[in-house]
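Key result, reporting period 2: structure in, sequence out.
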């Protein structure tokens, strides 16, 4: 999985996630922006599944990960007019909903160990490794 380019891996995983019944794009997701730093909602039709695949990959790579770390990772540069731009976090509702859907699908689970957050399950690990093998 780590020997494959992330773009190809995320594209392959998003196609496979679309076939999963538990992963569904909510109706409200067509009208919202992904964060305060963006001007418009996403244009891609399957952006929900691309973001889900990227979140699943990030959970796999970074161990116990919470919503705040993911908000920081998926944020971007916020233009502030004449003032210098700054980093802005992405929206938390999207990330929370995707994490709940991935948990329901069995790909990740919540951990209350010393580090709180979500980690990948063996089923999720197999899913990622099969996607990586498909590309190679």
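The corresponding designed sequence is given below.
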């Amino acid at each position: 999985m780590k020997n494959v380019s992330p773009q190809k891996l995320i594209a392959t995983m998003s196609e496979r996630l679309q076939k999963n019944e538990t992963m569904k794009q909510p109706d409200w997701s067509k009208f919202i922006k992904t964060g305060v730093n963006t001007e418009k909602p996403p244009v891609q039709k399957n952006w929900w599944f691309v973001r889900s695949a990227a979140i699943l990959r990030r959970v796999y790579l970074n161990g116990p990960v919470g919503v705040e770390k993911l908000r920081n990772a998926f944020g971007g540069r916020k233009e502030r007019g004449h003032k210098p731009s700054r980093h802005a976090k992405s929206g938390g509702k999207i990330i929370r909903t995707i994490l709940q859907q991935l948990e329901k699908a069995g790909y990740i689970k919540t951990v209350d160990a010393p580090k709180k957050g979500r980690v990948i399950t063996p089923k999720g690990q197999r899913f990622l490794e099969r996607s990586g093998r498909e590309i190679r």
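The mean pLDDT is 89. Helices lie at 6-18, 47-62, 67-73, 92-105, 122-135. This case is discussed further under Risks and Mitigation.
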